[in-house]
Amino acid sequence: MPANDQATSPSEGSGGDAAGYTPRDLYDELLDDLLYDPAIGRATMMGYPCVRLAGRFLASYDHKAACLVVKLPRERVTELVETGTGDPFAPAGKVFREWVAIATLDRELWSTVLAEAVAFARQSLGHEQ
Description:
Blueprint: H1 23-34, E1 40-45, E2 48-53, E3 56-62, E4 67-71, H2 74-82, E5 87-89, E6 96-102, H3 107-124
Antiparallel strand pairs: 1-2, 2-3, 3-4, 4-6, 5-6
């Protein structure tokens, strides 16, 4: 889980034009854009709202830490953590190595990692990106 318990205010974001949005608002808006794909749908995971592609989890919203949580290749998760862009996702203290929590409220960043999560989920299903 991210060390930051508070949501990053839109003015503290890294410039991705999230002004006027709460983290949950941005999550919901970006997911609405993904739901045009009939293989993608809303669900829950460990009590968190999430989105799945053909049954595979790809993203979630951690309401306690007010952050986006996405499933990506381990190497990408490591990169995001090492650059300070993300934090390990560790509910109940267990680190999920293919999941990263992104607390910075940044539309461009969130959109990018969501697209990466969709591509990763498709790849795991054996589909071309």
